[in-house]
Predict the 3D structure of the following.
Amino acid sequence: MSRKKQPEAAKIVENIEPGTLDELMGDRFDIYAKDVIQDRAIPDARDGLKPVQRRIVYVMWKTGNTIEKQTKKCAHTVGEVMGKYHPHGDSSIYSALVRLSQPWIMRVPLVDFQGNNGSIDGDPPAAYRYTEARLSAISNELIRDINKNGVDMGLTFDDTEFEPNVLPAHFPNLLVNGASGIAVGLATEIPPHNLKEVIDAVIYRINRPSCPIESLMRFVQGPDFPTGGIIYKTQGLYDIYLNGRGTVTMCSRTHYEVSPDGLDQIIVTEIPYGVFKSAIIASIDKIRRDKEIDGIDEVRDETDKTGLRIAIDIKKGFKKEAILAYLLSKTKLRTTYSANMIAIVNGRPQTLNLLSYCDTYIAHQKDVYTRRINFDLAKNKARLSIVEGLIKAASIIEEVIKVIRLSKDKADSKANLESRFGFLPDQSEAIVMMPLYKLSHTDIEVLMAERDALKEDIAEAESILSSEEKLSSIIASDLREIAKTYSDKRRTEVKPEEEMNSAAIDKSDLVAKDDVMVALTRDGYLKRSSIASYKGSGGHTGAYPGMKNGDTLLLAKQCISTDHLLMFTDKGQFIDLPVHMIKQTKWLDEGIHINFTATLDPKEKIVSAFVVATFRSDLYIVLATKLGSIKRVRLDNFASLRLGKPARAMKLLSGDEVVDATLTSGDSTLCLFSKGGLACAYSEKEVAPFGTSAGGIKSASFHGEEVVDVESLNPGESCKFALITDMGATRILSSSNINLGKRLSRSTVIFKSFKSQVNSLIGVIKLQKEATAPFTVKCTLSSGDYLDIEFPDLYLTPMDKIAKSELKLPKGVTVSRANTLDGILIDSSTQSFDKAEEAEESAPAEEPAKEGEGEPNMVTNDDSGFDEKYEQISIFSDFNFDD
């Protein structure tokens, strides 16, 4: 069978134009700058929307995603906008959609959102596959009349669809919701305003076309920010409306209260526009932590569903007025807003003052209303022609029927009706398409009534089109109705400039470095206690601090109030919390939950913690996870800029969690232990250091067993480990019994158990050289109770001894965790063996683990790495322990 002849490829004709690089770059950059200014970053003065916002609103309207109907998935809207109208990324479209719904950004939100749309703290929204949205009620006024030829339509980027060049915008959206955008060589920053105030100014300008700008400023008092607050009548405020550029001072709304503890409080209920609440709290916290003033006891975010609330507790003996004045001058409780009212007018960017904006908007409305009236007029005239034709046909119905019967087809019928009776083409079309029974006497009366109504509507429309005054009156009337329906009270108060609080306060002396005790539990309860309280409660004799029933003590350590508590959670986060930020309580009190400072998931647990005096670059933290990942991070990477706030320490795979963390010296030996009784040891240099955002690499060949603990030994160090299982079995293990090899070398079996009583390792305690026997370990049971497990001596347990407990635990109750009545203090005296010249040699071949990718050496259930030479054979191996 012969091959089909392929068509010849078209010949490409080269068209090379020589030129210099500066000329080429200049021309291309001009094109790029024009595109960014006109079609991306700067809003149109007529509808106040950027192209992406306009396309979102148009698509939601076109797909019926309006306030009258149920919300639709945001993924649907994003896909529709991106596929047909907006040739850019989905993230930019979704970000614009979310912004249109955020009530702390938009004075009148244009989108009604369902789901997480971010927060005033700057938190990101949920992914668009989870959220839903629809147009808000007032968006109907933006889009109304678009289907009546109210605006020009243009082709989309691929010439397959039509989109509006501008929306009808029956309310002055540019000033009401404001705008922000950075283009090439210019930027716009338009503050939001009160809907009723702007509409009143527009109506006043409609009725008095020659009024001065000062008369409009009687209506527009100033920006009306959605976050409320206070602004002041400075010259900068007037400059915004006179020149289109100016700066206004914004201040938080505050009042004073007294706390249940009798402390004075500064309560913040409204903050400046565009400022993150978390940033304000962080800045106040920093002042308190750094002791810039010695009068702030605590600052809390008490925001809930009822509204924003920041509580600042004032220590007794300090004046709350002076502290507030200091905070206003040093934090973003008071800041400035620089307005630059640039928008696109007639295709070009233009700086607008209040007067020029009103004129631009009014001209747009007149054009929209004129086009709408002309559309309705043409429609009514067309309908009137048809109605009159039907009425005429009814008067000669018999003759009409006869003509239609004698005609060959529809076209012949129309031609005969037009030639014999003088019907117009649209009339003849309506006659041949209408069932004859509708031309009864009753229907004729209805048609005659419709004809009279159409004539009135046509006369009214022609009257409006011929009268500028009537057209303006209709626009003003509609604006009043919109203001009545959608406006609300002003949120931002305008005060005289004289009321600005400019008082200052001298800084207080720094807080003295106090010796304190800190304690931290797995459930996240922490406390700072005085040494006197610690000793008075018997802490120095081994008494445990107060804890919730079922909780586990992770750390109890003496330190200095200026030290930091570095905590790691099972979700791969870390928290750098200065000790003096921890609320001081008695040693036997439970303490306060870490969520008073850092927001953690309700099920998130603390797994390890260290007291850090100095975040050194020559020490490391090694993190181990349950599914067998390991990661090494330089200690100074955990010196957080967001003190007291959780941040990522390690990226985890799905279902994985951090189980332990240990401090290493740069040349330490890592010892890892599995749940089923395996252990391995290797140099920490087998694990290259990574930043806090990376994942981990495979830690050991544990045949799919879960990792439960990681310990570290300094060079030349040998120690003993106390092991505890979930059944209460104990043993003493020497570090020399664990095979020292490569990271993925074969593991050592450190215990076996009967099949009838399988033991799982739950705790590993590294014994110091000065450890003496007997000693007890306080353990937390699965029932929530506590049990002291005794180690009578420090003799090594034979490696072939079966793990068996003599404890009589209640049925179904196991040992969960071992408590630690100690902790690690990292300061300048902590030994380091890190050598900078060896840093290059320490990197392994694989990259850290990333979820969803087939990384090398990730945890599997492969048993090929099992080293039989370390398997210990029990003298009971020949017995069946199930019998």
Summary: The radius of gyration is 38 Å. The chain has four domains: 49-168, 253-332, 370-484, 515-849+856-868. Residues 253-332 form a domain with the Gyrase A; domain 2 fold (CATH 3.30.1360.40). Residues 442 and 573 are 79 Å apart (CA to CA).
